[in-house]
Amino acid sequence: MENILELVSTNLSRRGFICRTAADGQEAVLAALGIIGSGSVGIGGSLSVKEIGLAEELKKRGNAVYWHWTDGAAAKEQASRAQYYVCSANAVTQSGIIFLTDGSGNRISALSYGPENAVLIIGKNKIVADEREAFMRIRSAECAGANARRLGLHTPCAEFGQCDDCTSPERICSVTAYFERPSKGLKNTYVILVDRPLGL
Ligand code: SF4
Prior knowledge:
By secondary structure, the chain is of the alpha/beta class. The chain has helices at residues 3-15, 25-36, 47-52, 54-61, 68-71, 74-79, 106-112, 131-138, 141-150, 156-160, and strands spanning 18-22, 41-43, 65-67, 84-87, 91-93, 98-102, 117-123, 127-128, 175-179, 188-194.
């Protein structure tokens, strides 16, 4: 395990997040299954969660899972009322501040108030030096640009690999929040830091 993961984990824990590290996606799945137990699970839009196959493992085990990527738009609303909400983040600073950017604010809303607990699965590619780098990462070709291309959108970041703070109706980064501490609107916010690149 690299030192940087331990450093971020320590800083997240100091801030009140319940943090674990995992060597790879498989370990991250096992950690998430252990945290969640038999609880119901809502999942936000997340390539990281998709890549590690967590939804399939939860369903196989009998957990109720609500994920709009596989279960239709109504699942978005149900997800916000589940006992556990699972998603990733767009960036986490070395000092343990977690950044998310949404088009509709569904992940940000769930991590602020709604479900009882949240579980964030964050690959090491999301670790940045500081807040300035976090904002840069969010608007980068590798993050927003790649995500917009994946969705077939025609934003400047997707087409030219550069953000111009666009006014496109297809803009995907409308709401940004950073969590310096876990929200008091939830019982627990868990973070699983994975020693592999995951998601965008
Ligand atoms: S503001 Fe527009 S161009 Fe910039 S990252 Fe967001 S969607 Fe892309």
